[in-house]
Amino acid sequence: xxxxxxxxxxxxxxxxxxxxxxxxxxxxxxxxxxxxxxxxxxxxxxxxxxxxxxxxxxxxxxxxxxxxxxxxxxxxxxxxxxxxxxxxxxxxxxxxxxxxxxxxxxxxxxxxxxxxxxxxxxxxxxxxxxxxxxxxxxxxxxxxxxxxxxxxxxxxxxxxxxxxxxxxxxxxxxxxxxxxxxxxxxxxxxxxxxxxxxxxxxxxxxxxxxxxxxxxxxxxxxxxxxxxxxxxxxxxxxxxxxxxxxxxxxxxxxxxxxxxxxxxxxxxxxxxxxxxxxxxxxxxxxxxxxxxxxxxxxxxxxxxxxxxxxxxxxxxxxxxxxxxxxxxxxxxxxxxxxxxxxxxxxxxxxxxxxxxxxxxxxxxxxxxxxxxxxxxxxxxxxxxxxxxxxxxxxxxxxxxxxxxxxxxxxxxxxxxxxxxxxxxxxxxxxxxxxxxxxxxxxxxxxxxxxxxxxxxxxxxxxxxxxxxxxxxxxxxxxxxxxxxxxxxxxxxxxxxxxxxxxx
Length: 503
Known about the structure:
Elements: E1 14-17, E2 20-28, E3 37-42, E4 53-54, E5 57-58, E6 68-71, E7 80-81, H1 82-97, E8 102-104, E9 107-109, H2 114-121, E10 128-130, E11 136-138, H3 144-148, E12 154-156, H4 165-172, E13 180-182, E14 186-187, H5 193-196, H6 201-210, E15 213-214, E16 238-240, H7 248-254, E17 263-265, E18 286-288, E19 310-312, E20 340-342, H8 351-357, E21 365-367, H9 380-390, E22 396-397, E23 400-401, H10 404-417, H11 419-424, H12 438-443, H13 447-454, E24 474-479, E25 490-495, H14 498-502
Parallel strand pairs: 7-11, 10-12, 12-13, 13-16, 16-17, 17-18, 18-19, 19-20, 20-21, 21-22
Antiparallel strand pairs: 1-2, 2-3, 3-6, 4-5, 8-9, 14-15, 22-23, 24-25
């Protein structure tokens, strides 16, 4: 859209200006100045100067008091259509990366295999289309997308100038094989890769998607009849909407468009209060809600999703999780298929939260790094042992495999660590007399099962729980001088294991 063609139809369109993105909220004059102005609500509220009012007159409204400003149309870029962006990107890359011939010294040689690469790079053969930050704003001429990229299964439109779901549907309906759609830009932190190389391929892919650095510039207006657009997304299995300023209510409103969706990424949005997804999102296997400040009491609203296997709640401000339908030692009906749960960077400080997780019937993978709970023991490996002992089926903790030997050691140490408390609470080495009180059972719901598995620890094995301090980790050692028996022995404090360390 050129400056001379700007009209009221531009209201709602996305624009870029000096590297900033925004949405046009007003087109018209702003007295006493002459000429046409665009009233823009910026994605970054610090870019603006006001809330849509000027000299006492309101021209438009903004979510933030400094989110708006007026710009001249000639300074705003309205973007390009899909096919124009596609040709700009891929044909330029093709010319730069591949040539018919390569000149080495004074000879001209043909590079074997280049023709095969060129063939794969032809637009009509593309199965993965990446148009991140290519200023795409619309589909372009009718059926041109279908004729240009007919085989596309994966499409990245992150950081573009798309203004509505109707515009997106006009693109999607021409891609008959579209299965993956990404509307949130992300660059995987490469420093994370070495830690994940031991993971299965499927687990690695999930981690990379959820740990991406995500900053989107797509702000899609919500359709009044989303189900009408569902044919455009009929094959869609993966949808990434990170950082798109969406609420959960808006997500549920739109979800009738995605009838077969399996993976939904909603990191860093405006999701707070969760509502029950009745008759929608029932096919989800992966849900990412990380970076949203959730009301934790609304978490049970999504616990009925029947196929949900992976849930990312990292950085969600959670301090408690409770499954009130099950008593300690029992299994909950919530999250019946959940295998992987990410709880990194929350406010969890009580072991009872871990006890609640034991109620999940299929939990195999857990990540709970950087929570206050893990600082209680001061030693992260001790905290890891306690988590493993409290969760009977855990196979992966904080991206590290739990081996059978590690599990056995953790469970035995757990029995020794809390054995004295068990005896004081009414526990007994004879099974017929073993009746610890309800308080202990609630705090350590797996303890009796571990006693039955390994037997009660001997009295000499019981570990008295002391707060971590250097003085509690030292042994008193008496040194006697063999050459001078009359000399007074000397006592020194040395670390436990000092003899072993000396070899």
